[in-house]
Amino acid sequence: MLQFTGLHHVSAITKSAQQNLDFYTNVLGFRLVKKTVNQDSPSMYHLFYADGEGSPGTEMTFFEIPVVGQTHEGTNSISTTSFRVPTDEALHFWKERFEQFDVAHEDITERAGRQTLRFRDPEKQRLMLVSDEHNEGVAGGIPWKVADIPESFAIYGLGPSYFTVANAKATDALLTTVLHFREAGTYEADGTSYKVYETGEGGSGAEIHVEHREDLPVERAGRGSVHHIALRVSTEEDIDAWIERLEQFGVRNSGFVDRFYFKSIYMQDPNGLTIEIASDGPGFAIDEPEDTLGEALSLPPFLENDRAIIEANLKPLHTKRGE
After folding, report:
1. Known Pfam families for this protein (predicted)?
2. Is domain 6-312 given the CATH code 3.50.40.10 in the classification?
């Protein structure tokens, strides 16, 4: 049976690539592993943050859209992105760090049997840290070494992705019948109920938590919102197999898409959420040395001839830590 190996990446929207870079590297301690452009609209940056090795399952990416407005939060949205930390103790470190850097955050709270800490980035992106203290399942990555963040407390992977939807039955059918997710329980938090779905080995790196909300307006995306979530497979052949399965169930999809750093297919769930399926390889070191990932502007081969024009339309971006 076809199975995903976990979450691959989450892609969101920012108004300012430089502000975004400063927060996700200098405050959260991610490594910028690829500075490139939106392949479908190369006038805008596409930044990839990840663990120290740029591992699938640890990636948070952002499209820069300078003219974008603020998100109007609501239903039919990928409403929270979470990141994994090794222990409950790590959450206390991060709470103190958020206070030091004036990051908006809530108290440490238990959700689905794990300790969690909700917070917001400067553009009000809805984020959460999740403790792996008692977690089993998909392994995390290798933390990027940052001087003021102990490795034992560092972020090292994506945690559960949260969907807020009006038609929960339709999302349930897509996840379980078509995409082979398993129901893994329910829980109450934040005054509402959530259903947990898992794939592959399970655990926090392989979960989607769905909140059913018909009382909210449909979210209007902007800066601080998630554009799509990607589910992880090992090979290009897996992408082909999933295309066949989606066609079998009549799920409209993009067909095979070569993103150079990985291979993909895109679909929408019945509530309009964009879901990508992405392969592990070939990876971010395909076009630059591993020790300098993200420092120069990388372009896929089909855009390389337009490098001069693309660079002229982008604002310079300081990508070395501390600049």
Report:
1. Glyoxalase
2. no
Span 44-94, pLDDT tens digits: 999 999 999 999 999 999 999 999 999 999 999 999 999 999 999 999 999
247 phi, psi to nearest 5 deg: -65, -40
Within 13 Å, how many C-alpha atoms sit on residue 29's CB side?
Answer: 24
CA distance 150 to 140: 16
Residues 35 and 295: their CA atoms lie apart, in Å, by 7
Maximum distance among all alpha carbons in the chain? Answer: 53
3-class secondary structure, 301? helix
Give the tens place of pLDDT for each residue, 165-190.
999 999 999 999 999 999 999 999 98
Coil, helix or strand at residue 315: coil
pTM of the model: 0.96
Residue 60: strand pairing partners: 10, 49
Rounded distance, CA 111 to CA 242, Å? 32
The answer to whether the beta carbons of residues 313 and 266 sit under 8 Å apart is: no
Query: Residue 57: how many CA atoms within 13 Å on its side-chain side?
Result: 26
